[in-house]
Amino acid sequence: MSEAAAAAVGTELKATITIDATPAQVWALVSDVKRMSEWSPQVVRSVVLGGPVKRGTRFLNVNQQGWKRWPTTAKVVRFTPHTDFAFRITENRSVWSFQLEPTPEGGTLVTHRRETPDGISAVSKVLTATVLGGQKSFVPELLEGMSQTLERVKAEAEQN
């Protein structure tokens, strides 16, 4: 059974988990863009453009759903060490984030979000409807992927 709790509230998708590791340890994992394919079941590969990841850094992703693969580009829009890491996907305008809060027990509460503050692009809506099975099936798939991402981060953080 999944330890992560996930839900859709309006257009926001959110998953949370508590990890028995410090915010610094969890931050080192979730902000390591090159390793995103180890955490997310949708990401095949991420390539950082330029030097170290920071606010403004751009990167490329190759994503997948079954046999289907597609590229996306992203830009880091929030970068507050040990607290908040977020990036915007250019093609659909969504913002994906990891927010970290210390727990009284010395662990970290992690909230993984997908927000669409500027809506979803028309191109993305059409592609989701025609290629990815439509919002009705794609949203639960994204939520499950977010939970899997957090569970994989938890497993890695707690083994170290």
User: How many helices does DSSP assign?
Assistant: 4
The CATH topology is given as Alpha-D-Glucose-1,6-Bisphosphate, Chain A, domain 4
CATH architecture grouping: 2-Layer Sandwich
- Kindly name the structural category: alpha+beta
Helix percent reads 25-40%
Average pLDDT: 88
What is the C-level CATH assignment?
A: Alpha Beta
Kindly provide the radius of gyration, computed on alpha-carbon positions and rounded to a whole number of angstroms.
15 Å
- Shape, principal axes of CA atoms: globular
Supply the number of structural domains: 1
Strand count: 8
Beta-strand percent range: 35-45%
- Order of adjacent strands in the largest pleated sheet: 1-2-8-7-6-5-4-3
Q: Which residues form runs of ≥5 with pLDDT under 50?
A: none
Distance between the termini: 23 Å
Major sheet details: 8 strands, antiparallel
Q: Give the CATH H-level superfamily.
A: START domain
Element string (H = helix, E = strand): EEHHEEEEEEHH
Short description:
This protein has four helices and eight strands.
Please name the defining characteristics of this protein.
8-stranded antiparallel β-sheet; 4 helices; alpha+beta; globular; 8 strands; Alpha-D-Glucose-1,6-Bisphosphate, Chain A, domain 4; 160 residues
Characterise this structure.
The protein is α+β, with helices and mostly antiparallel strands. The protein has a single domain, classed as START domain (Alpha-D-Glucose-1,6-Bisphosphate, Chain A, domain 4), CATH 3.30.530. It contains four helices and eight strands, in the order E-E-H-H-E-E-E-E-E-E-H-H. The protein has helices spanning 23-30, 36-39, 122-130, 135-159; strands spanning 5-9, 12-19, 43-49, 58-65, 68-80, 84-89, 95-102, 108-115. The chain has an eight-stranded antiparallel sheet. Helix 1 crosses helix 4. The chain is globular. The mean pLDDT is 88.
